Amino acid sequence: MPDPVTGQEKEIEKVTEELNQKMTEAPEELTSSVTRLTDLLETVGAPDVPPQEREGVIESAQDIAAALDVINDPGTPAEVREKLIGVVKRMISALDAVSDPSVPAEERAVTILTVQRCTSVLDLIGASGTPQEPREHLVNSINQVYQVLVPDEGSYPGESSAKRGSSAARQPRQDAATIGVALETTGRSETSEGNRIGLAQTADEASSSLQDSSDPTVSDEDREEARREADEQLARLNEQLKKVALAQGLPDAPLGESAEVCTNAIFASVSERSLTQALEEMIPARWNSEGVKDYWKARESGSDALDVQAQLQNNTYDNAPIEVAQLITGLDHVVPADQLFGTVGVPGLHCLQSARHLDRQGVEAETWLQMAEEEA
Questions:
Q1: Angstrom distance (rounded) from CA 217 to CA 220
Q2: Residue 98: count of CB within 10 angstroms of its CB
Q3: Are 144 and 208 in contact (CB under 8 A)?
Q4: Rounded to whole angstroms, how far apart are CA atoms 203 and 216?
Q5: How far apart are the first and last CA of the chain?
Q6: SS3 content of the chain, % helix, strand, coil (to 5)
Q7: SS3 letters for 303-371?
Q8: Predicted structure pTM score
Q9: Strand partners for 320
Q10: Which of 154, 172, 262, 368 is placed for a possible disulfide with 355 were both Cys, Cβ 3.0 to 4.6 Å?
Q11: Looking at residue 157, what is its pLDDT?
Q12: What is the strand order of the sheet 317-323 is part of?
């Protein structure tokens, strides 16, 4: 598997050139934000940046570059243009906020991933055929997720990494990531109009409650009530995501293909800390001794293994084959079925399909197999 840096460097050059060209026609209020985004693209080009993070910033920049076409189009309604400008500025601000080296790695990763999922619906927000109601829900959701990701931009330098990396601090960001999955699913072409409206509405409600539960200016009692509401709405959102995905049916894909799609979706969505704990017995000893910085990609390698590439803590890249049966059963414990679609979205169907294939070989991926059998 090739080193990802070279290919990503070319993508950075291309999208940076595109942003610089479109910025000349963009509203003046976007100039500083887009300039900052091109600076961030240069920063993530450094070889020590995890490739998942680099990819997230690149894809967000590509989505923003496409949104600039709509913003710059004189035929775009003024209200839509203003909403897009506001969302673009906030998403760039969120990326900027976690670019500081003092930000914990896990916080940076989940923020970039959530921004990437939010910017994936910029085209839907700007599309002339999008009804007003879902557009409003999408814009509200992104703005509210931003407030969760960046509650106080000025607080970063003075807040300790230990406090920001605590489980209590991580939970709102993880919940924001689930809302990001819902937004991304809303924007998928195979999502029906009815499901699109339903997901957008629940995402709006959940992100509003989540924002309120993180607001330090309100009373503890109000925050607790908002947290309870957020938990209920997030549970409903998870059920909607499951329903929307399962309505498509399991993919007609062989084991190797399904395992590859499933594994890559989880690599992109789950912290390295959780992955390393689950995969410790499967990965090479040199990975354990050096430490894994980023599980990057898995590719089908024969009928019973995936070739996994990781960035190690010394910033070198290494590949190793891992048996599909081991990998899938291990990942089933990392993201059990009741969390699957809220964590990775529609690609979770490939995890269920992998479990079905393995069951025929006498290998059981417990929770995924159970869900696959229930929905068969």
A1: 9
A2: 22
A3: yes
A4: 22
A5: 35
A6: 70, 5, 25
A7: CCEEEEEEEECCCCEEEEEEEHHHHHHHHHHHCCHHHHHHHCCCCHHHHHHHHHHHHHCCCCCHHHHHH
A8: 0.94
A9: 308
A10: 368
A11: 37
A12: 292-300, 305-312, 317-323
